[in-house]
Amino acid sequence: MDLFQAMRMFVKVAESGSFSGAARSLDTSNPSVTRYIADLEAYIGARLFNRSTRRLSLTEVGSNYLERCNQVLLDIDNAVLEAGMSAANPTGTLRMTVPMSFAVNHLGRILPEYMERYPDVKLDISLSDRVVNLVDEGYDLGIRIGRIEDSSLVARKIAPARLVLCASPAYLEKYGTPLVPQDIERQNHICLRYSYANNPDVWTFVKAGKTHTVKLSSSINANNGDLLREAAVGGMGLVLQPSFIVGNDIRDQKLVHLMPDYVPPASMVQAVYASRQHLSAKVRTFVDYLIEQFGDTPCWDDFGSCEKAGAKKSTKKTS
């Protein structure tokens, strides 16, 4: 028995004063209403109606039960309405996990405009460079750089994140400047290795369709790109990091962009979430906002021309 459907039928019978009236109101058959009420009385273990050939009336138990049913059904209808409104309008807490370097360098500056557009959303942001299990750890959204290993997740491209090989002028003066990938091994360059890379022991470059791989000789392994950037600025070795991390230093000539004709495999910033079905408005609007702010030509690809304050000016209407 569908208990909530039986409760609705019971309320309609009580309101109309007859089984046939309830059947017409609910667009169902009289035997169906009769069966539901009989099943409901059997479930409760008490008679709800006094029946006679001329009239139908509530028993004392039925009268008390009617009051409770009305409240329960009202609560259910309100819950459905609130859930529907939440799905259509951004509200509630959006829990997300974001790589530390991307969050600190680029996410923070665009948050004020999003919060101004959608004041009913609260943000709970966890900074971590590890690959977080969104479902197990209760996150609505994750920002990932590079390849997505978990095929069960939905991924949307936010922006390109090209990798850049660079080193400080002082390091290059001391150890020489690699002009081709083979020079990295021939000249015994120190490579600052990112331990969360898909293949942390190898750097790969492509030129004219030909792939070149370099096995790394590393004195520093770290799971944070900003730490490796600081080490490179300090003259400790070559670093291969996204332009959104090293762009400012290349612009300020603290780092030199090396071998620009040899391009590492394309990478990208992606938003990932568990399912595209019944996607909440808070997730949908935040991902759309990230694409709007960064997109196919992000500011970091100009080597650090991103504005430090505020998001892009937009005439896009809020919802």
TrEMBL record:
- Name the UniProt record assigns to this protein: LysR family transcriptional regulator
Q: Which residues form a coiled coil?
A: none
List the keywords (alphabetical): DNA-binding, Transcription, Transcription regulation
Organism classification:
Bacteria, Pseudomonadati, Pseudomonadota, Betaproteobacteria, Burkholderiales
The segment(s) forming the HTH lysR-type domain are 1-59
Extract the GO molecular function terms from the UniProt entry.
DNA-binding transcription factor activity; sequence-specific DNA binding
Pfam families associated with the record: HTH_1, LysR_substrate
Q: Which GO terms describe its biological process?
A: DNA-templated transcription
> Which superkingdom?
Bacteria
